[in-house]
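Human: I hope this is not a bother. Would you mind checking the protein record under this note? Thank you for your patience.
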Amino acid sequence: MKRASQKTQSKDTNVKRSKFADARHIQIESPALKNGAVDVKRFVESRSFEISALQDAMHRSKHSSAQRAFQALPRCLRRRAASHNIKRIPKALRDRAYYEMQLSSSATTPVTPSKQRLKRFIKRLHRKLARHANSPKVTNSGQLRTEHSTEDTRIPTLPAVKLVNGKFAGRQLRKIWLPTHLWTAKRAHMINAWGYAIPESPTEKSYRPTHRAAFCLNAIAFDMSYQPLFAITGPLSVLRETFGECFTTGLPSAYTKTYRSFNSYVKNSQTNELLCPCLLQWHDPSEDCKSKVPTRNNGSAVQLVIRVHASAFLDVWNHLSSIAVLDDQIAMHDWRLQLASFDILGPDANVILHDIFSDVQSSEKTTWDSISKLPTTSLPFGASIGFDAPLVIHETNLGQQGNEKEKDNKENKSHEIQNKDFGSLWDKHEIPSFNVFNHVQKKKEAVLNVKKELVPVYFTHQSIWNGVTVIVPWEAAKFFWQKLMFRKGVRFGGLKNLHQIAFEKRMPFFPVDYPDTKSGQAYEVRRKQCNEEYWRRRPPAKRVNFENFGKNFSEIGDPFSCDWKCFHDGSDSNIVDRTAQSFNRVEVRMVQRGALHDRARIYCIDKDQIDMWKKLIYDKKITAEAAEYPACPEVDALCGFVTTANFNLTVGRPSGIATMKSGVLNGESQGYCLVRNVGCSIPRLAQWKILV
């Protein structure tokens, strides 16, 4: 289509400006003066004329540049059919939208539902439900392959999926839907990973909004129900002695005397192989729950509640069950499909949760109310609390509730935080007891009625993420999620957004940045397949020729992945074992201008080369196009790969998380290296720093 000329564009602009100017013009009359005297009658008529002109100008200005109801919505609430279908507009604006559609100046007529169409829809729905009721139901969910189980359910078998009823039951036979699936599937890109249907990222742009919600203002929520929850039951001394070597931090006695959770890594106690990160919490079950545990000496039993990553759940379960099966005082409990967990990250996460659970009806009400005005960063380290609260969904606009309360909280927040020791509330020198973990072990036949009964809730602070973790029964998860999403300033995120937050916090993200684990290697295989498939779909003239690019340069190793086989020394040992012994995770930041991408190659340089590069960059200020720019080092200088890279909004420059050979670090905590992106022959100077 031919582009409009500059003359036509300026004409349209002038017409629009003149339209607004005419609409805002207010007519006036000359003063009612005659020979120095005021004519009262004319003065009153002049003022009346000017008041009428002012009102007319206000009316014309309002309607000349006014927004329709659907145009005034934020981007996340806009819908394609909102201009003619009021059902696509929030209820608070439907009356205004219906009035605008009925105006004579509007060419759009509102869509009104037909009663006959509604009756036909109800009949079709009844017939469809009747067909589902008569269809044979699946009664066997299948089982995961585990290495150890007992007949007395001390070590139970693991169901593969969660059996559900309804029209979507057939879609959940090979994967598990999260309790928020019907909500997130309409608003996010979904992927199937580790046996779950997981949201990957919202459909709208979310990179910078995620950074703002997690670091600057408000909060962002994640449904983490795909991370399995299970518990180990036994006497305290037996658990600490038996499973202490299975965690990198051990099982410190300090956490058995306080209401706090802690983070660690699960490892193989025999080979020291890292399995996955985990969240640990001690729990003292009720007497009724202790009596149901099929173990010896169950009267003095306590529980260690563990949350691990879904990709390594089977490895963790098999390793821990191989130890537990040898002692009849130890039992294991699988709570994967009975408890749902959520992570709410951001500075206002604590205030938002207090707005949701404002009516706590248990003995912990005083402790819960004492931290109601604290920002997330001011919460005590690992503080955990369990309480019972109603969780009812109202039909009114929940986003407008509690706005005045939030303003008062922010105004009085600084006055109440000072001179108050909140940490002493959690140091009670006893093992805590949480009702939500007792509830899941009672095995009630009746389903929890969320609208009428109190819901048990577990709340804990995670300082490394600057957020909190909430655990509720699976039946109450969707009600909690809906109530959370209606709160002002709360976003939702997926795997990519959680990966972004970890990247900006300089934290390795599991399993992407853990090539020394089986889960990390399995993820690298999947990423290689996706990258190679994307490359093959492109036309040959539009894709990079990795065998010959730049100045007769060919890519090192597999261009679609971090090829750790480049460091293969010819031995028959496992790659995982060698990687765990000889590699370290580091942060890489660019020194000179240039982007940094995943799978970038890292080269080591000596001190003389570092001085030469600094002189070229800072003194001569040469660019990559200059003839003096150094060439890429040889293959022998390769010392690592970048597993995660992007533009870091926290530091304002490109950075990445990488894995480098320990031999080239020489025991130092930071240094310089050269980084080259895949498909590019230009190396760039970067600085690395070991991640603790």
The chain has four domains: 6-102, 178-226+340-417+425-499, 229-337, 518-690. The chain has 18 helices and 22 strands. The mean pLDDT is 84.
